[in-house]
Design brief:
The protein has one domain. By secondary structure, it is mainly α. The chain is built from two helices and no strands.
């Protein structure tokens, strides 16, 4: 992979993580959640981010 492609992927993943924070904040501000539910949501969002990273790591950009 080229340096430019790596930079694009890095920027993309940073955007995904930032959007994930926004999703969590949106949910947290609109629902009355227990700490257990908050932890569960955070774990699910982190799992999604981790799986996306694994998938996108070796995929070529078009």
């Amino acid at each position: 992979m080229g340096i430019i492609e790596d930079k694009i992927k890095t920027d993309l993943m940073q955007s995904v993580y930032a959007d994930s924070i926004g999703i969590y904040e949106f949910i947290d501000s609109r629902f009355s959640l227990s700490e257990e539910k908050r932890d569960f949501i955070i774990k699910k969002i982190n799992t999604l981010n981790d799986e996306l990273l694994i998938i996108l790591k070796d995929v070529k950009l078009s």
